[in-house]
Amino acid sequence: MSAAAVSVWLGAVVTIVSRAHADRNVYPSAGVLFVHVLEREYFKGEFPPYPKSGDASNDPITFNTNLQGFPDRPGWLRYIQRTALSDGVLYGSPTAEHVGKPTVIEITAYNRRTFETARHNLVINIMATEEFPLPYQAEFYIKNMNVEEMLASEVLGDFLGAVKNVWQPERLNAINITSALDRGGRVPLPINNLKEGVYVMVGADVPFSSCLREVESPHNQLRCSQEMEPSISCDKKFRAQFHIDWCKISLVDITKVVPVYVSRPDPGPGVLPEFGEYNPPSEALRSRDYLSDFVVTLAVPAAVALLLFVVLGVKRNMQTPEIQLVQHSSIQKSSKELRSLSKNREISWPLSTLPVFNPVSGEVVPPLHPDSYETTSMPLMQTQTNLQNQITIPQPRQTGKWYS
Predict the structure, then answer these.
(1) b vs e for 84-118, b when ≥16 Cβ sit within 10 Å of the residue's Cβ?
(2) FRET label pair with 99: which of 122, 129, 261, 373, CA 20 to 30 Å apart?
(3) Quick one: DSSP state of residue 241?
(4) Cβ 210 vs Cβ 204: under 8 Å
(5) What is the pLDDT of residues 97-114, one digit of tens each?
(6) Are 347 and 375 in contact (CB under 8 A)?
């Protein structure tokens, strides 16, 4: 149950398309971009037969990749699958420290319609190469591409061909590809077919060409600081297919880079070694008794707090004079007695409800309410219209011939 794997070489870039049922071994080189495509059609025969031909291509299939025995992939290896109806891509750039260490990647496919799964192992044997590291490295930012589009063999081959035309090196390798989202970029708006952008790093064995050096001129640096597009003579070599942001190009000559060595502190006893083996705890674990933890955590502090409360209370009574305690007790007793009396006392009438007198005769007029009325419903002020014995004060009449 195996078929031949298809390998397409683009300089030192290898794209390996899985088309076999058995486990596969691949041999990428250190410092060279590695791309492995997980095709949905490859797992078509792993699931039960379908009622109609062609149904498998329409099923949503997602992939999960991890290092064998671990929940995630190695640090140098990345994976992307845009939707469940598209292929997945494993890509990354191994370093020299991974040479000679076989890496087994478990690939699990999930059919979201039938809930069936299929699993295969991909063994990556990283080989050493004499061409690495290439001393001159340039990183381009391509604005009109997503990372999975750039990883396609024909697109990446076209880009390397354009770079080779403006650089003219003897050896040219794609070293790394990184999505702009991994560099702090924002997700574009879903309008006008905007792309996320991708960074592509390439290396060569000859110095940078004059065209690439044009981005370092003072004139172009000034235009970049003013957020204007610089004037690059070789931009037309890329413009037909790739829109490059020349203000974000990075040119590095690693022969002139001073290495910085940082001494790492010795790990403590609780830190596993970098390449150590993880031994999980035994499955036969004994049940733990939490009674002692409860006593130490709650019972002992509560007992100490109660003892302090008693000791401080006795100490306060001993230091307080007896006459002060007696006075305090008598004050509390008197206050309680006054509260009980205030609840039973008879509420007196407000001054506004007391008898009023006639301003002319001086006769005292009794209030409008009898003694049985509730005081809470009585108004504070009495109006003249409410008086039962309202007295009308006679007004003097004017005399004259026109009055009778």
Answers:
(1) beebbbbbbbbeeebbeeebebbbebbbeeeeeeb
(2) 261
(3) T
(4) no
(5) 878 888 899 999 888 888
(6) yes
